[in-house]
Amino acid sequence: MHTLPLLRDRTKLAIVDAHHHLWDLAAGHYPWLQDEYQGAAFFLGEYQTLRRNYLAPEYLRDTSGYNVIASVHVEAERSRSEQVDETHWLHEVRHSTGLPSVVVPHVSFIQADRDDILASHARYPEVRGIRSKPVTARSPQESVRGQAGTMQDPRWLEGLSALERYGFSWDLRVPFWHLAEAAEVAATFPRIRIAINHTGLPWDRSDEGLSQWRTGLAALAAHPNVFIKLSEFGLAGGRWDEQSNRRVIRDAVAIFGTERAMFASNLPVSSISASFGVIVETVLGALADYDDLAIGRVFSQNAMAFYRIDARGW
């Protein structure tokens, strides 16, 4: 069982936030934030509150009262013509503010200049991996299997394989009905470390939906190169279901173990549904039966190892 002092005093719990975003709308072009508003088409629903600058001061404000010792910035859907510009900007932000600690930029695995973009990212010292989203189906009832840009596309797989050349990890972001396919990819590339984003996006909280989600996670967990981020539990319309969220967290940790699960906030996107404090308390509540060593792994140590973070500067 856990020892109460650590869990009572949240200020002493070291946190590595394994997934968040920053953006300056004057410094770059973010189509989803600056172009035509998509409204309810966004996976969490209305996101008007996100269409503003979100910089280091805002992140520090939102995480105040908690001991965040390091963070991982994951690409924020900046214009795909500005992929390296985002990496450059983030290194400037890190130099002036101390965060983010490391960076996970974007490159499409099928873009014509993929190798040049990868090489350019690799010149920046804090780049640790790549997030590149495959083409996915809109629902579990549809299939895009084998189409261009999917996880079966030979050119897409060739692009993924290029990460190994740089020692980059891959941030995997697909809805739960594609997790089993992602496990096939993980089996093909055992030397590429993979981080499942947003707990595998278990949007369907019915027994049938969660069963399919757990099956997909179990297939991925069979491969030791795969880790999972405990993040983004919000549901459509900005709904936060505390009881269901705790169940999802417990199930994910039971499948992957505390050695391959990482806490992450997904700020500021997660603020549509919950504050940083609510997210932390929800994860801690779900892990109440785990001891302090396990909680320390989930909240900091696993992310530091996966993303090769030196938190001494924080």
What is the share of helical residues?
A: 25-40%
Main sheet strand line-up: 4-5-6-7-8
Describe the sheet with the most strands.
5 strands, parallel
Query: What is the distance, rounded to the nearest whole angstrom, between the alpha carbons of the first and last residues?
Result: 30 Å
CATH homologous superfamily - what is it? Metal-dependent hydrolases
- Tally of discrete structural domains: 1
Comma- or semicolon-separated keywords:
single chain, 314 residues, alpha/beta, TIM Barrel, five-stranded parallel sheet, three-stranded parallel sheet, 38% helix, disordered N terminus
Plain-language structure description:
The chain is an alpha/beta fold. It has a single domain (4-313), classed as Metal-dependent hydrolases (TIM Barrel). Helix content is 38%, strand content 11%. It is built from twelve helices and eight strands. It has helices at residues 4-8, 31-34, 56-62, 83-97, 114-122, 154-161, 163-166, 179-188, 207-221, 242-256, 276-286, 292-306, and strands at residues 14-20, 67-74, 102-104, 129-131, 169-172, 194-196, 226-230, 261-263. The strands form two sheets. Strands 4-5-6-7-8 form a five-stranded parallel beta sheet. The longest helix is centred in the first third of the chain and has 15 residues, at 83-97. It holds the Pfam family Amidohydro_2. Residues 16-309 form the Amidohydrolase-related domain. This is Amidohydrolase. Keywords: Hydrolase. InterPro entries: Amidohydro-rel, Metal_Hydrolase, Metallo-dep_Lactonases.
In short:
The protein has helices at residues 4-8, 31-34, 56-62, 83-97, 114-122, 154-161, 163-166, 179-188, 207-221, 242-256, 276-286, 292-306, and strands at residues 14-20, 67-74, 102-104, 129-131, 169-172, 194-196, 226-230, 261-263. By secondary structure, the chain is α/β, with parallel strands linked by helices.
